[in-house]
Amino acid sequence: MRFSIPEGFEVLAFTALGFQFLRRFLDTPTRLPAWEPYLKRVWLIAVVLYGVGALLGIDTFATGWYWLAVSVLVAYLLLQIKDYPPARTILLALAPILIATTVEELVEDFSPAFHKSNDDYFQSASAFASMWLIAFLVIANRQKKALVKREQEREHEAEQRRIIEARKAELEELVAERTALITHQKEELEQALAELKATQSQLIQSEKMASLGELTAGIAHEIQNPLNFVNNFSEVSIELLDELAQEQAKPARDPDLEAELLTDLKQNLEKISHHGGRASSIVRGMLQHSRASSGQREPTDLNALADEYLRLAYHGLRAKDKTFNAKLNTDFDVSLGQVSLVPQDMGRVLLNLFTNAFYAVQQRQKQSPPDYQPTVSVQTSCESGQVRIVVSDNGTGIPNEVKEKVFQPFFTTKPTGQGTGLGLSLAYDIVTKGHNGSLAVESTEGQGTTFIIQLPA
User: Total domain count for the chain?
Assistant: First the structure.
């Protein structure tokens, strides 16, 4: 038996290649999974048929029946995925060439003479079908690209939506956590505020008692002087009384001596009364300072008030440090007269300013050469309907970055245990809110500080 290549080989190869193209182009593994096992075997079927034809020497594959079967199969597959636009386009693309080829094969098999005489028409039909096929394949390819692009856009949008939803859920969870945290912090702050308000009055009272402690040492020193005078003059008066009693007991009394003794006794009693009054004044000032302010203004000798608290503050510091000495300068306006104010409140302000001034010069003295002279000054005056009190020192001064904070509550530059940070804050409130005045500070670091109080005259 002679081996020959069947004439229908090109048809077999064309259909096999066509099926592979359709599989890839139409994505049949995804769109026609049930047909995929059979479509995969197109090459195997083509090889088997080709081998059978070659061995038997029969030309089976060039017949119109084969093309008809192929046309029906392709049309059926395309109809299965007709919802896919490129599939419909390919169906339109293949229809002319399948019909033309099938008709030509059938005519050639059953009427060779007719086919031969009209071969030009069949060639033209095949050429037109081929151009039709190419044109619609291009269209189908563009459709597929457009669909792929839209699918990618949809996937991208879906991915973006998933990201947005995930981010939204994350943000909602974060907001819920933050809300819970803020709510918890709010509750803690409200509790802390309640505790702060509850302790505020205690702190203010503690500051008052702290200033009272500063005052006590000075009072102890100041009150000791009049008490010493009272004791000394009392002892001398007792001696004078003894001398007077002895003189009166003599048979020959000396009237001049008795008169002199009585005069001396009267002078001693006057001095006892004077110094007793001084002691009473100091005690009364201490009591006014320690008790709660009534808020009632009364005419007050501001010069005497400033002088008294200046010396009390000075002796209060000396009671703690016996080696400390300072120069006290006073420049009081004698024409100032009585000023309407709350004496115990203004006393607290002056005591705080004087105490801070003495503390500043004491600190500078520790760092300065021996020729440094600590000096604290107080000046009063009346200008343009305003009472002016100036307290200055040549101490350490206040840095610029600290100067703006000195009147803030709880702010202090003193070491822990030596200041609460409420003294200047309370002083500022007393002057500005309690007396409708002003309290300002001027300072140069390393040179000194000046506090200026202005009150309505």
Answer: 2
CB 343 within 8 A of CB 281: no
Q: Which residues pair with 442 in a beta bridge?
A: 450
Phi, psi at residue 455, to the nearest 5°? -130, 150
Domain of 365? 295-457
Query: Which pLDDT does position 136 carry in this prediction?
Result: 84
List pLDDT tens digits, range 212-221.
Answer: 555 565 556 5
Please answer whether residues 25 and 144 qualify as being in contact, where contact means their C-beta atoms are separated by less than 8 angstroms: yes
Q: Which of 127, 145, 164 is the last residue of a domain?
A: 164
300-356 pLDDT, tens digit per residue, is 889 988 988 888 888 777 777 778 888 999 999 988 888 888 888 888 888 888 988
Instruction: Determine the Cα–Cα distance for residues 137 and 129; give it in Å rounded to an integer.
Output: 12
Name the domain boundary from 133, 164, 195.
Answer: 164
Q: Which of 127, 10, 26 is nearest to 67 (CA)?
A: 10
pLDDT value, residue 388: 92
Residue 104, class by beta-carbon neighbours within 10 Å (0-12 exposed, 13-18 middle, 19+ buried)? Answer: buried
Which residues, at least 6 apart from 398, have a Cβ–Cβ distance to it below 8 Å?
A: 406, 413, 441, 443, 445, 449
Pick the more confident residue, 443 or 50.
443
